């Protein structure tokens, strides 16, 4: 909801390859195109663009069970998209054979693990994501490539079942033979989609394809491989190269630009906005309440209230075998205030009048779920911490217009523990809970900034606010969002 999708949309209209880098079917969002709403959970949403190839990388955990009525899965999502009229979806999706498989066993264990925590529950979606990543890092998980070896698959699945059975006993209501039988039917069909990630992504980058990186847990990013210039209607990529065939799968418009990756700071997904024009190949996101960002990173987030994958630049590079030298600019996207969904540390949260006002003006609730977001002042301690991890070259400050009517605006500039300032965002949640927040106050500008297009149009007090943020973190605010529409964006030279 901090607007990373909007910036990506503005900067990257010509996607040729949409790739998922991390996460699983636990998160979801909707895209509205031509009056039809499409739901995406596991599949990349580039499938909505008939000229875009799509890829699920090795950082993703992959769920295929078509019998589950409560959870989206690979084949179920493909079928839903076909029924809504999207063309050739099965010909425009490939999956890394290194993806780890989410089993029904993992789904059941996820619920049992969450129940064990009692009042200290993390807030799991209970879709098996955490247990699958746990098995992956314990080196006991099952990868897509191993499904095609029936004997090995059965051996590993039964070993997992025995281990969980020792822990949970009769609480684990699971039939291992049922799962084995299901995968017999999946095995042949899945082979059509499995490719070697390294050769596939090497080929895509060698051909300088315009790549959108999408992750339910990494927000959105855009990468084009170094500099690119495309000739109108020239075939520029052969996405099936790794499968031994050279079939032209897409064309691209005349386009040029430089490479960058865009990431985000806050805790939610892109802000809802209307579809604008056919010429943009990348459809706008409308209702993504579960898209997550840096502070939910498994290593660097507010552990344990995090997701199970890496949501930083490192996760994007590793989850897709991207060449880090292709990244020439990193853009951090942060709201002019802070929001969070669900449990977890939020030092600047305001549960009274200010928080309610931010929530109301900023429309801080999931448009599909109605779930309210927790709101508070911008936390520059967290922003600076984020900058130290992702090394942003510039920032995009969004939803500045939400602050237009406030008499006073605050930002957090330090945490004090026992009277001493902490050097950084602490890993120890007990220290964080006890820490005192130091704020700096600004007079509100109390003028409308909505739809301002140039920096000089902003009130001086709004510019003072922006420039203080720049000086505090040492990074230029290059983009400023002044409303939900695509055009409501200031770009500073």
What does this molecule look like?
By secondary structure, this protein is of the alpha/beta class. Among the domains are: 100-191, Adenylosuccinate Synthetase, subunit A, domain 2, CATH 1.10.300; 329-491, Adenylosuccinate Synthetase, subunit A, domain 3 (Adenylosuccinate Synthetase, Chain A, domain 3, Alpha-Beta Complex). 28% of the residues lie in helices and 20% in strands. It has 13 helices and 23 strands. It has helices spanning 4-11, 74-83, 104-116, 129-137, 144-147, 150-168, 176-191, 197-206, 313-320, 353-361, 380-390, 429-434, 460-473; strands at residues 17-20, 29-33, 36-40, 53-56, 61-63, 93-96, 100-102, 194-195, 210-215, 219-224, 228-230, 255-257, 261-264, 330-335, 338-340, 374-376, 378-379, 394-398, 408-417, 420-421, 436-443, 477-481, 489-491. The chain has a six-stranded mixed β-sheet, sandwiched between helices. Strand 13 (261-264), helix 9 (313-320) and strand 14 (330-335) form a beta-alpha-beta unit. Helix 3 (104-116) crosses helix 4 (129-137). The radius of gyration is 23 Å and the shape is globular. 46% of the residues are buried. The model is unreliable at 215-292 (pLDDT under 50). The active site is at 136. Plays an important role in the de novo pathway and in the salvage pathway of purine nucleotide biosynthesis. Catalyzes the first committed step in the biosynthesis of AMP from IMP.
- Helix amount, in percent? 25-40%
What is the CATH-assigned architecture of the domain at 329-491?
Alpha-Beta Complex
Q: What is the count of DSSP helices, taking H or I runs of 4+ residues? A: 13
The best one-word shape is globular
Point out poorly predicted stretches. Answer: 215-292
What's the total number of strands? Answer: 23
Strand residues, percent: 15-25%
Distance between the termini: 25 Å
Q: What's the CATH class label of the domain at 329-491?
A: Alpha Beta
Please tell me the overall pLDDT: 78
Q: Strands of the biggest beta sheet: in what spatial order? A: 8-6-4-1-9-10
The Cα radius of gyration reads: 23 Å
Per the CATH scheme, the topology name of the domain at 329-491 is Adenylosuccinate Synthetase, Chain A, domain 3
**The CATH superfamily title of the domain at 329-491:** Adenylosuccinate Synthetase, subunit A, domain 3
Helix and strand composition category: alpha/beta
């Amino acid at each position: 909801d901090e607007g990373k999708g909007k910036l990506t949309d503005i900067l990257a209209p010509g996607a040729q390859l949409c790739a998922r880098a991390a996460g699983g079917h636990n998160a979801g969002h909707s895209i509205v195109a031509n009056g039809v709403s499409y739901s995406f959970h596991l599949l990349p949403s580039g499938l909505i663009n008939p000229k875009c190839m799509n890829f699920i990388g090795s950082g993703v955990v992959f769920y295929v069970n078509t019998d589950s009525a409560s959870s989206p899965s690979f084949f179920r999502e493909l079928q839903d998209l076909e029924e809504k009229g999207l063309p050739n979806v099965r010909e425009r999706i490939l999956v890394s054979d290194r993806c780890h498989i989410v089993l029904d066993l993992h789904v059941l264990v996820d619920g049992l693990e969450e129940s064990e925590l009692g009042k200290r529950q993390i807030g799991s979606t209970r879709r098996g994501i955490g247990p699958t990543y746990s098995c992956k890092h314990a080196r006991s998980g099952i990868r897509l490539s191993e499904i095609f070896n029936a004997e090995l698959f059965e051996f590993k699945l039964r070993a997992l079942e025995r281990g969980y059975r020792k822990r949970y006993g009769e609480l684990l209501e699971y039939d291992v033979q049922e799962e084995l039988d299901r995968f017999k039917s999946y095995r042949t069909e899945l082979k059509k989609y499995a490719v070697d990630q390294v050769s596939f992504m090497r080929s895509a980058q060698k051909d300088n394809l315009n790549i959108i990186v999408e992750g339910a847990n990494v927000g959105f990013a855009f990468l084009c491989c170094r500099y690119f210039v495309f000739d109108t209607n020239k075939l520029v990529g052969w996405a099936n190269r790794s499968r031994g065939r050279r079939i032209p799968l897409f064309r691209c418009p005349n386009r040029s630009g430089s490479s960058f990756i865009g990431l985000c700071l806050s805790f939610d997904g892109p802000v809802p906005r209307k579809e604008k024009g056919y010429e943009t190949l990348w459809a706008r996101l409308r209702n993504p309440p579960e898209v997550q960002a840096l502070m939910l990173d498994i290593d660097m987030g507010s552990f344990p209230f995090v997701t199970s994958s890496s949501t930083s630049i490192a996760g994007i590079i590793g989850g897709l075998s991207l060449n880090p030298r292709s990244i020439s600019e990193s853009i951090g996207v942060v709201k002019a205030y802070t929001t969070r969904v669900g449990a977890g540390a939020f030092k600047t949260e305001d549960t009274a009048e200010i928080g309610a006002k931010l929530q109301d003006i900023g429309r801080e609730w999931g448009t599909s779920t109605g779930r309210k977001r927790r709101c508070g002042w911008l936390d520059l301690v967290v922003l600076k911490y984020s900058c130290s991890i992702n090394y942003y070259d510039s920032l995009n400050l969004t939803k500045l217009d939400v602050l237009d009517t406030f008499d006073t605006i605050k930002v957090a500039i330090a945490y004090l523990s026992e009277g001493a300032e902490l050097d950084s965002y602490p890993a120890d949640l007990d220290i964080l809970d006890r820490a005192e927040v130091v704020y700096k106050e600004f007079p509100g500008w109390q003028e409308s900034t909505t739809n301002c297009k140039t920096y000089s149009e902003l009130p001086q007090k709004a510019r003072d606010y922006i420039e203080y943020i720049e000086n505090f973190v040492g990074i230029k605010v290059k983009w400023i969002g002044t409303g939900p529409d695509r055009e409501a964006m200031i770009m500073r030279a």
